[in-house]
């Protein structure tokens, strides 16, 4: 399948283009879901959203960023993933903090996000995250026909139906994005 200037093929047939945990998660999906997850190799230097979209002629609205947050309440610290479309901002101190019932919420430090997810920064994806993490999916992501997300590595991207992202284990769909303008 062609999307932008990229050609996508089934991710299950290209495990070398996925982080190990992403490949395992795709492999564990029902066949219909696994066949809907597509992958394309990209220039790893263009993995960041704005550069990727411009170079590969893909709208920012057709991409979703997976943002790792660190929540705290009392002595407890935990992590969650949030999915918002490329041009949107995550409502960290409002909707996300309230939903996670956190006293304090911040973006996870890059080194912690990489270590905890076993994925490369700039390629973190909700597919294959630690099993006990909550995944908060913005409504606009869940409703989008298909979106570009990370693959767990910087050298490729996934093309996935929004509805599939909403069905991931521990995923919850809610309004967590702030739209520009």
TrEMBL record:
One GO molecular-function entry: aminoacyl-tRNA deacylase activity
Cross-referenced InterPro entries: YbaK/aa-tRNA-synt-asso_dom_sf, YbaK/aa-tRNA-synth-assoc-dom
Species this chain originates from: Agromyces fucosus
Residues covered by the YbaK/aminoacyl-tRNA synthetase-associated domain: 44-167
Pfam families given in the database record: tRNA_edit
Superkingdom to which the source organism belongs: Bacteria
Signal peptide, first to last residue: 1-19
Assigned keywords, A-Z: Signal
Name of the featured protein: YbaK/aminoacyl-tRNA synthetase-associated domain-containing protein
SUPFAM superfamilies on file: YbaK/ProRS associated domain
């Amino acid at each position: 399948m062609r999307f932008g200037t990229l050609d996508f093929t089934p991710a299950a047939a290209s495990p070398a283009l996925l982080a190990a945990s992403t490949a395992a998660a795709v492999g564990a999906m029902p066949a219909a879901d696994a066949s809907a997850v597509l992958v394309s190799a990209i220039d790893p230097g263009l993995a960041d959203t704005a550069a990727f979209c411009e170079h590969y002629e893909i709208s920012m609205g057709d991409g979703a960023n997976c943002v790792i947050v660190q929540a705290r309440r009392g002595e407890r610290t935990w992590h969650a993933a949030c999915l918002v479309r490329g041009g949107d901002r995550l409502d960290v101190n409002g909707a996300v903090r309230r939903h996670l019932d956190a006293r304090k919420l911040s973006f996870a430090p890059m080194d912690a996000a990489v270590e905890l997810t076993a994925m490369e920064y700039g390629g973190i994806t909700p597919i294959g995250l630690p099993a006990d993490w909550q995944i908060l999916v913005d409504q606009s992501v869940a409703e989008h026909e298909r979106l570009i997300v990370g693959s767990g590595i910087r050298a490729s991207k996934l093309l996935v139906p929004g509805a599939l992202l909403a069905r991931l284990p521990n995923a919850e769909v809610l309004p967590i994005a702030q739209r520009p303008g």
